[in-house]
Design brief:
It is a single chain. By secondary structure, the chain is mostly beta strands. The protein is 8% helix and 16% strand. Strand 4 and strand 5 form a beta hairpin. The longest helix is centred in the N-terminal third of the chain and has 14 residues. The N terminus is likely disordered.
């Protein structure tokens, strides 16, 4: 004889069955909690993404059409630094890592930065750097070694807190040259000057000290002053065909 179970009996049976399953893992629960953008180790990605943000080492990229977002790195061969808003090509998998291998489009055109980690060496038989409007270099230390060098510029300015020039032979050619400063010191073993005309004004006292002093003029030699003194500790000699005093 069959007996129909009441609703209360059915509920008690379900509760009893549920009680027996307490502590057992639910096989569907990991799938329900799995994030949509989580990669498996064998899932390969090779698609275009937009750069959301970066901290120079890691980049956050997203594909809004498919609702995916990943934390990726920049491949060593991708020298162009991606900026937020750029469209980049991301390739790799969860096991080997995801990398930006190329910048496809820039959000801001004309603003490009090439960046590498560590030292960079560019080697070529002939290397040329061209800047249409401006070429600037900013570094903590600068060194240049070359067998021969040439600088050709319409205008050239060098500003330095300390400047030293050392050369075995120095040749300076200029139509007009000007030197100005608070103090100048020169040390030479020998000095030879040939000028067409020389004029010098000393605001203070002009002092010349020498072991032997020899001034010679082909035509006229003149020494004048408000008070003129000629002192000879041993001998004072004046020689001429005519000697006029007064």
């Amino acid at each position: 004889m069959n007996h129909r179970q009441s609703d209360s009996d059915v509920q008690i049976g379900l509760d009893s069955e549920a009680g027996n399953q307490v502590g057992r893992p639910d096989p569907l629960q990991p799938l329900l909690q799995k994030r949509a953008n989580t990669l498996n180790g064998d899932t390969h990605v090779h698609s275009a993404f937009l750069v959301e943000a970066h901290d120079r080492a890691h980049f956050t990229v997203s594909n809004r059409e498919h609702g995916r977002q990943y934390e990726v790195k920049r491949a060593a061969s991708c020298l162009l630094l991606p900026e937020p808003g750029d469209k980049v090509l991301v390739s790799g998998d969860a096991a080997g890592g995801l990398y930006i291998i190329a910048v496809l489009e820039q959000r801001v055109a004309g603003n490009t930065t090439l960046q590498v980690d560590g030292a960079l060496t560019v080697s070529a038989d002939e290397l040329s750097l061209q800047g249409g409007r401006r070429l600037a270099m900013n570094t903590e230390a600068f060194s240049l070694a070359a067998g021969a060098g040439t600088v050709d510029a319409k205008s050239w300015a060098v500003k330095s807190h300390y400047y030293m020039l050392a050369s075995a032979e120095l040749n300076v050619v200029a139509t007009a040259s000007k030197y100005s400063g608070d103090q100048r010191e020169s040390y030479y073993r020998s000095v030879t000057e040939t000028v067409g005309q020389s004029s010098r004004y000393v605001a203070g006292t002009d002092t010349v000290k020498a072991i032997n002093l020899d001034y010679a003029a082909d035509f006229v030699a003149r020494l004048s002053g408000n008070t003129t003194l000629i002192n000879g500790e041993t001998v004072v000699k004046a020689d001429g065909k005519q000697i006029l005093v007064g």
